[in-house]
Description:
The protein is 41% helix and 16% strand. It is built from seven helices and eight strands, in the order E-E-E-H-H-E-H-E-H-E-H-H-E-E-H. The structure holds farnesyl diphosphate. Farnesyl diphosphate binds next to helix 1, helix 2 and helix 3.
Amino acid sequence: MAEINNSSLSSELRVPEHIAIIMDGNGRWAKRSGQPRIAGHKEGMNNVKRIATAASHMGVKVLSLYAFSTENWSRPSKEVSFLMRLPVDFFGTFMPDLIKENIKVLVTGFTDHLPEKTKKVVFKAMDDTKDNTGMILNFAFNYGGRAEIVNAAKNLAKEAVNGSISPDDIDDKLFADQLLTSPLGSLADPDLLIRTSGEERISNFLLWQLAYTEMVFDKTYWPDFTKDNLIEDIKLFNDRDRRFGAI
Ligand code: FPP
């Protein structure tokens, strides 16, 4: 784990290699100031750039952000359309900064089911940053943990039926290789999960990968979540005793 010395910190802090964030509270943030929900998503998108930059400077290796779940399609169609346009806006605006920061973009989710324009920009963002060697900014977009596990089980069942594997070959490693996070290799499992806005649930995010992840539920709405909030949450992580089932 990287160690950071930051002016906001009283002592050295171990930085988790993989931080995952459920960016919740955009709608409530907007409502609080009498604005439509989409204003909250827009400010939430701007905050992605701020927090991604901060995390990259701290030495985080993977930042996974839950941007759109497989359940979010059931929101009003205007909100869904707005959320589908966010990657177009985000990569259109911030790509030069991502390149400058040496950030590599990854999108994990059922990308085949995205609208064409959204699909095109996310694949272009991955391609434009594929040679970057810094932090991986992993957007979970049209992602659902149960669907991911079902998909992995189906793939393995097909391989067993066609004889390329035996059912007894299936273990944690073979299973994880079939998950959408497999491009992250040994960094696929988050060390720390943060959910903003005070809600305390997982909401179908990274169900397999969160097996031994430390969780912090932060009351701040996502658009208000700052680098200092991130540092506070990393401090809480530092206070935890991770035993991975051992004693
Ligand atoms: C949950 O808040 C948030 C979302 C469903 C969308 C999150 C998306 C972003 C922060 C922007 C992502 C950026 C890119 C580039 C894809 P909510 O709407 O459920 O808030 P509420 O619980 O207060 O109503």
